[in-house]
Amino acid sequence: MQYPIRRKLRPRDARRSNRAFVLQAINDNPRLSRADLARETGLTKVTISDLVAELIDADLVRETGTSEVGRPGKPSTLLALNPAGRDILAMDLSARDRLRGAVLSLRGEPMLTRVRPLDGATGQDALDAARALAADLARAATRPILGLGVGTPGTVDRSGTVLWAPNLHWTDLPLQQLLADDLGLPVRVENDANVAVLAERRFAGGPGDLVRIQFSRGVGAGLLVGGHLVHGAASDAGEIGHVTIGGEDGPLCGCGKTGCLEAWASVPVLRGQLEADPVRADEILARAGRRLGLALAPVVGMLGLQHIVVGGPADVITPALLDAACDCIVERTRSEFRPRLELTASSLGEDAVLLGAGALVQLNELGVA
What we know:
Layout: H1 11-28, H2 34-41, H3 45-57, E1 61-67, E2 76-81, E3 87-92, E4 98-104, E5 110-117, H4 123-140, E6 145-152, E7 155-156, E8 162-165, E9 170-173, H5 175-183, E10 187-191, H6 192-203, E11 210-215, E12 219-225, E13 228-229, H7 261-265, H8 267-276, H9 281-303, E14 307-311, H10 319-332, E15 342-345, H11 352-366
Parallel strand pairs: 3-6, 6-10, 11-14, 14-15
Antiparallel strand pairs: 1-2, 3-4, 4-5, 7-8, 8-9, 11-12, 12-13
């Protein structure tokens, strides 16, 4: 992979950009030498030597040994990200009954996790719980903290303000600024489905064009096109949970409309139906999958997407739901001109939002995607 500098930058910005190129290259291939980095990035050996020394001094990169394979002369010293160089704080606010937090290494490994019961709390109570969890994580960190990443339900703008989260009863809540003021740390707040799709790309080998559906207290979607998150003009791209499915006789949604996808198929709704009629579990989940397919088919047809990942609890994200969704999309789009649609359950389990929140911090603070 090449990491070219495509435009002229001020010296300070150029150095920051070069530093990000080097970190990205090392992250992508943890067996590179300084000479390899010069070839990969197009930077001079002097620049590489200077940047690597700075990154080692900052505990972000470490030397991991030598390699002599196929190379005459002096053995090359190999480089890798130092997973113990920083702690990253991550929070997942997507569940109805609890908030989850973790302290992650630079490699994304959870070093410890914390759970704070929520029990359906909303408004100020939910905000107080989130702030308390953030403070608890900061106290638990044992190394310098790179920052805090938060995945939350709802529409979130570029400043980290939660514009609208009906299930939490939050409107125009400056969550990112509040947490930054509390902790004195860099904080990034993003929609939970958006950070989950970042995790699929970073930790599960997902392609650059990918939709991740997030089933939790609502239903959301994170969309990558060309490896970049799609936010939309009003920061509301991916709000698939508020696409109406069916007529006006559908169930009332928390947003005030009737027949929204998440009013039919959120985790609390589906679990209530499954508890009431467990014998018909496959039928209930297949019906939810078909409704998901109805909402997704226009998106797949318009963007030509081939890869969809669905995340959520294992008792909800079953083959019955996935197969019904896939069949519905294929029925309603022109699929004969592209490879078969891949619609699969996420391999990241319940940690997808936490991992993606950590990846968001790395992207914003280090330039590593």
